[in-house]
Amino acid sequence: xxxxxxxxxxxxxxxxxxxxxxxxxxxxxxxxxxxxxxxxxxxxxxxxxxxxxxxxxxxxxxxxxxxxxxxxxxxxxxxxxxxxxxxxxxxxxxxxxxxxxxxxxxxxxxxxxxxxxxxxxxxxxxxxxxxxxxxxxxxxxxxxxxxxxxxxxxxxxxxxxxxxxxxxxxxxxxxxxxxxxxxxxxxxxxxxxxxxxxxxxxxxxxxxxxxxxxxxxxxxxxxxxxxxxxxxxxxxxxxxxxxxxxxxxxxxxxxxxxxxxxxxxxxxxxxxxxxxxxxxxxxxxxxxxxxxxxxxxxxxxxxxxxxxxxxxxxxxxxxxxxxxxxxxxxxxxxxxxxxxxxxxxxxxxxxxxxxxxxxxxxxxxxxxxxxxxxxxxxxxxxxxxxxxxxxxxxxxxxxxxxxxxxxxxxxxxxxxxxxxxxxxxxxxxxxxxxxxxxxxxxxxxxxxxxxxxxxxxxxxxxxxxxxxxxxxxx
Length: 474
Prior knowledge:
The chain is mostly helical. The protein has helices spanning about 1-20, 25-30, 40-50, 55-60, 90, 95-125, 130-155, 160-185, 195-210, 215-240, 240-255, 260-270, 275-280, 285-290, 305-325, 325-335, 335-345, 355-365, 370-390, 420-435, 440-470; strands at about 35-40, 70-75, 80-85, 295, 300, 350-355.
């Protein structure tokens, strides 16, 4: 385990020392490909409106003008916004930029450590070593949920209160959807959660019977399912606004790429990626179709069970990389909201305060780091849940043979240590926990979480498309 610990400490040290100098998250926003719209000055707006340059407050007081009425201009002025590339200095004033930079950089280093540990296990085949890459992936999943909660808390603090109602409504909806998903039979949704829970129950039963606590087994199973449903509802509420935002940027990115058919195809495939992830766990139209493909009056097996598991893992990783590849198009589409807002303002009658124009354009730019978190957060969460599914579920990347099929084995109760051999006691407890939380259980758990994150994105993004195309337009 020494090699893994050294690499893990090296990655943590490099992440801390190199963050001010080399950051993937900062490069993603500040590499010069994203252009922000600058708000016009008071002099420019007054010149467009045919008014004189506004006097300073001191000059106005000397001339006897003491009113504090805000300066305003007609809404139909011919306003053209200037653009400039986003630089690292510009990004420092963004809200939640430091949180965004740390989270994305940590996810990048976690992925790098995981790739190293996978290669280390493939080449060296260490025995009885803990996989450090799994720990990094688990931390990334926890930090993803923390980031989602931070952004959702920002919406709950909004003065308008509409965002709070939307989050609560979708939380209740996803609560019902999670309960429905958990009662569907494995013949239709093949998470493997029920076999995993059955294995845990059988392993715990032998331990609890010795202490007379076997009556707690059904309660523990019920508590686990209720906790999983609550977690799904919370994740659904957190993924609500990222899905709605994704729908908006997707539609705007398609308009910006109207003369680029290849880019439009990539945007469509990226947007529909969660749908493909959801379908890959629907057994009748995915696994059964490929393992028993109809060919006339006969059925042909296109691939084996292990090959299908491997293909599903690689497909999810590829779709996550595709989402990452079109990040710039989505972020630039969001920044284009400033120009669209100005175009909409010119179609309206009346006057508008100069300060309101400046605030609106500046607010769109200052929110870009939050939008980046909303876009990249689900991608990072899906990717690392998939990596945990592969490692803890004992799947294979197809580069080396997959382990044999897993069957839950009964775990023995740990004997009471006498106190002199602490190391043996730790090994015994670890062995018992390994016998209880089997790879079969982790397969079901992380398969369900991966599918659930994709399902939440499907529901919220499709609702967002309907909202922005029909409801918002009306």
